[in-house]
């Protein structure tokens, strides 16, 4: 019995660590690099050298998007569920000469929650008409299990 308890405690402590495991996705330290970028002074080459290639580029204008996402494991009680610690998006707009026209930094507090409408679309036709009832009856007779069993 003591061995089972010892093995259980051993595996429990083996899986626990003092440092939380975090997964980082995208560009790192966007907040610090945001301060370095200056409007009408920094060009596309400077941005590429500072941040690397953009996570996404707009097809309609000169807009680049850089994304940083960091997820960390929560406590052992929550069984390894991950919590979003950072979710930053840097939006850079360039003018026709390649200089930064505008810059925005969105973080978890600035992002909008999506609100889903609860309105349902009503049909313009009803299924209680005469033709529908006849066709529905015919379909039920064709798909009846007694008819299928006789054919086999």
Global geometry:
flat
* Spatial extent as radius of gyration: 30 Å
Extended strand count: 5
Whole-Å distance between the termini? 62 Å
User: Would you identify the regions where 5 or more consecutive residues have pLDDT less than 50?
Assistant: none
Largest sheet: 5 strands, antiparallel
In short:
The chain is of the alpha+beta class.
What does this structure look like?
It is a single chain. The protein is an alpha+beta fold and 152 residues long. The protein has a domain at 21-115. 32% of the residues lie in helices and 25% in strands. Strands 1, 2, 3, 4 and 5 form a five-stranded antiparallel beta sheet that branches. β2 (56-57) and β3 form a beta hairpin. The longest helix has 14 residues, at 2-15. It is flat and about 75 Å long. The chain starts with a helix and ends with a helix. The mean pLDDT is 80.
Characteristic key phrases:
single chain, 152 residues, alpha+beta, 5 helices, 25% strand, flat
């Amino acid at each position: 019995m003591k061995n089972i308890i010892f093995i259980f405690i051993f595996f429990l402590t083996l899986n626990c660590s003092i440092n939380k495991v975090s997964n980082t996705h995208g560009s790192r330290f966007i907040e610090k690099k945001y301060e370095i970028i200056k409007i009408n002074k920094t060009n596309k080459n400077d941005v590429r050298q500072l941040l690397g290639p953009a996570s996404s580029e707009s097809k309609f204008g000169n807009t680049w998007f850089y994304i940083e996402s960091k997820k960390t494991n929560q406590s052992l009680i929550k069984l390894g569920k991950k919590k979003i610690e950072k979710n930053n998006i840097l939006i850079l707009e360039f003018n026709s000469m390649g200089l930064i026209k505008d810059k925005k930094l969105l973080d978890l507090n600035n992002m909008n929650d999506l609100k889903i409408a609860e309105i349902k679309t009503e049909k313009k036709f009803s299924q209680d008409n005469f033709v529908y009832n006849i066709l529905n009856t015919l379909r039920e007779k064709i798909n009846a299990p007694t008819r299928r069993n006789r054919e086999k």
